Amino acid sequence: xxxxxxxxxxxxxxxxxxxAADQVAKSSQQLAHDVMDGVRDTSHQLRVKAExxxxxxxxxxxxxxxxxMLMAAATxxxxxxxxxxxxxxxxxx
Length: 93
Description:
The protein is mainly alpha-helical. It has helices spanning 2-63, 65-91.
C-alpha cells in the first residue's frame, strides 16, 4: 500500500516535471522565434534607411556637384590629417 502510494507520487512528480520541461521548451522556441522576427525587422529597417540615405546622397550630388566634391575633398583631407597624426604619435612611442 505504502509502496503504491510512493510510486503514484513519484509518477505524478515525473509528469509535472515533464510538463514543466515541455512548457520551458515551448517558451524558449517562442522566444527564439520572436528574437528572429525582431532581427529580421531591424535588418529590413536598416536596409530601407541605407537605401534612403544612398538615394539622398545621389540626389545631392546631382543637384550640388561642386559642393559635393568640395565636401568629399575636405573629408579626405581631414582623414589624411588624422591618419598622419595617429602615425606620428605611434612613431614617437
